[in-house]
DNA sequence: GGACAGGAAGTCC
DNA sequence: GGACTTCCTGTC
């Protein structure tokens, strides 16, 4: 990987096909990346808007060096060796070989744990286009206006306090029966619970701690752990993953083989199976 | 086009 | 094991 700094741009190249904004956007981990035109994307995270462009193995981030070094390099997990996961996956069997090849551009974004908690509470018993729509409405109604680009307004993900200020609108936003789960999470965070602490806690303990939130079960806890707390060993089992394990592994998939990065393997599996059964 | 049924990154009781 | 909000999608 090669990083070149310009005045208001940072160019990253020689990524060896282990970075694709399109794959990241479509892999279902993030609902705040939109495709603008051609190869251009708008990414909202950390209370900021980032415009990025990708031309095969070259990515241009429209930000200064400081923002790249302190925010985006970490957010896109650029220092992690995804090649290792791809090689290990390829060696395992034919299905994983196809999956890692197809999804080789995936990265597990290091997103905000609070945003992940609410987003994946919303995700339960829901479909991806609708999840994206609800998250969008939630941000537009409750978040702060952080930027306007090409005539479009971009809003931050709301804080617990901001959501509580708009709790009467949750029904209109379309969260449905999940409103009580969201409200409970807001109350706990607002009264001082710090999700950041869980980044330092062992994965299994993190999951059981997260499951103490009302409306958070095993699946959502593992999503928050993987996408929001940097626990690459968290392995969310949703209907797709269970289907894959039944279909290709006779109901038993041994994740210990991928210790330390089984969550990344899970993401390749999810992304690939969805692509071939559409 | 429009109505309709089935189902959706699950969890609670 | 049934209920849960709402709406996207496929089918007729």
Description:
The chain has 278 residues and is α+β, with helices and mostly antiparallel strands. The model has no long low-confidence stretch (mean pLDDT 96). The relative contact order is 0.13. A hairpin with a 2-residue loop joins strand 7 (145-149) and strand 8 (152-155). The protein contains 13 helices and 8 strands. Helix 4 (94-102) packs across helix 13. The protein has helices at 21-26, 65-75, 82-92, 94-102, 113-123, 128-142, 160-165, 170-173, 179-190, 203-210, 218-228, 239-249, 262-276, and strands at 2-5, 10-13, 33-35, 40-45, 48-55, 58-61, 145-149, 152-155. The chain binds a DNA duplex (13 and 12 nucleotides) through helix 5, helix 6, helix 11 and helix 12.
Walk me through the topology:
Blueprint: E1 2-5, E2 10-13, H1 21-26, E3 33-35, E4 40-45, E5 48-55, E6 58-61, H2 65-75, H3 82-92, H4 94-102, H5 113-123, H6 128-142, E7 145-149, E8 152-155, H7 160-165, H8 170-173, H9 179-190, H10 203-210, H11 218-228, H12 239-249, H13 262-276
Antiparallel strand pairs: 1-2, 2-6, 3-4, 4-5, 5-6, 7-8
Helix pairs in contact: 3-4, 4-13, 5-11, 10-11
The structure holds a DNA duplex (13 and 12 nucleotides).
